């Protein structure tokens, strides 16, 4: 647990914002979208939006730490994003490296462990080296796992998992959902309970198709560069208003049904 946010302080914070401390999601995943439109609205280049998106990442990390979210996964660059103009791709990769260098000490002081998932070998060498260093230097930290999905797509990940299972020569009858779980890039992470997407789009764009099987989805029209703590807490409150049934019946419904029968 992060030393900066002891339980009493967290409870006060959550109570003040109408969040139930007993059902804060353990893992929140975010599709950070809308940087380009945000910049265009201001007559700026798309890259301007990406640069401002870093402030929102900081806000989401801080809000996670304060709320007691244990894992935060950010979809930062998809497999399909390689199809964007080279200039934008280069700028995004450059921004990634510069941000890692600039923020690492601060993240470490907050107890943040940095991890990356995706086809990392396709990233520029400077980005790979910075990620590796950040992962190694933060491996012992336990306040929050900040997972960056980079050159990631769910279909890529599932194909890789199947390839690995075949290479290992597993018998078909020995393969179950746990086998798949173990071969995904998220093998040691719990599934996200809450997925947030900014910018008003309502799709998952090849993100964690398997892991989001029973997640609650929160869509907000807020563009990613405007996303702040208040939006994060609204998403958690929205999550807490949902009834999660997992295909079964809620106890109360079940009892009513039994009484009628
Ligand atoms: C999200 O913002 C950032 C990345 C996908 C890297 P976009 O760049 O997709 O912004 P819009 O959706 O075009 O506004
Ligand atoms: C999804 O956003 C990918 C990331 C946020 C990294 P996109 O902007 O690439 O997705 P589409 O094209 O709207 O589906
Ligand atoms: Mg987009």
Keyword list:
Undecaprenyl pyrophosphate synthetase; 6-stranded parallel sheet; alpha/beta; globular; 261 residues
Protein described:
With about 260 residues, the chain is α/β, with parallel strands linked by helices. The chain has one domain: 3-Layer(aba) Sandwich (Undecaprenyl pyrophosphate synthetase), CATH 3.40.1180. About 45% of the residues lie in helices and about 15% in strands. The protein contains 9 helices and 6 strands; from the N terminus they run αβααβαβαβααββαα. The chain has helices at about 5-15, 35-40, 45-65, 85-110, 125-140, 155-165, 175-185, 230-240, 250-260, and strands at about 25-30, 70-80, 110-115, 145-150, 195, 215-220. The protein has a 6-stranded parallel beta sheet with strand order 3-4-2-1-5-6, sandwiched between helices. Helix 2 (about 35-40) crosses helix 3 (about 45-65) and helix 3 (about 45-65) runs parallel beside helix 4. The radius of gyration is 20 Å and the shape is globular. It starts with 6 loop residues before the first helix and ends with a helix. The model is unreliable at about 255-260 (pLDDT under 50). The site of one 3-methylbut-3-enyl trihydrogen diphosphate has 12 residues, from helix 2.
């Amino acid at each position: 647990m992060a030393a900066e946010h002891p339980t009493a302080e967290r409870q006060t914070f959550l109570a003040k914002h109408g969040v139930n401390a007993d059902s804060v999601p353990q893992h929140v995943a975010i599709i950070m979208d809308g940087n380009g439109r945000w910049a265009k609205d201001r007559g700026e280049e798309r890259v301007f939006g990406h640069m401002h998106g870093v402030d929102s990442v900081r806000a989401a990390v801080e809000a996670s730490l304060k709320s007691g979210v244990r894992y935060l996964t950010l979809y930062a660059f998809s497999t399909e994003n390689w199809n964007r103009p080279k200039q934008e791709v280069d700028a995004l990769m450059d921004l990634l490296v510069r941000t890692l260098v600039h923020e690492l000490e601060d993240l470490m002081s907050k107890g943040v462990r940095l991890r990356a998932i995706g086809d990392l070998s396709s990233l520029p060498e400077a980005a790979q080296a910075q990620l590796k260093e950040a992962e190694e230097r933060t491996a012992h930290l336990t306040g929050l796992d900040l997972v960056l999905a980079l050159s990631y797509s769910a279909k890529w990940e599932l194909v890789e998992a199947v390839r690995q299972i075949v290479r290992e020569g597993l018998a078909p009858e020995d393969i179950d959902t746990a086998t798949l779980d173990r071969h995904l890039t998220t093998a040691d992470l719990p599934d996200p309970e809450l997925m947030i997407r900014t910018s008003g789009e309502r799709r998952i764009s090849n993100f964690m198709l398997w892991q989001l099987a029973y997640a609650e989805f929160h869509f907000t029209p807020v563009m990613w560069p405007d996303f702040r703590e208040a939006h994060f807490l609204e998403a958690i409150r929205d999550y807490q208003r949902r009834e999660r049934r997992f295909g079964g019946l809620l106890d109360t419904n079940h009892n009513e049904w039994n009484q009628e029968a």
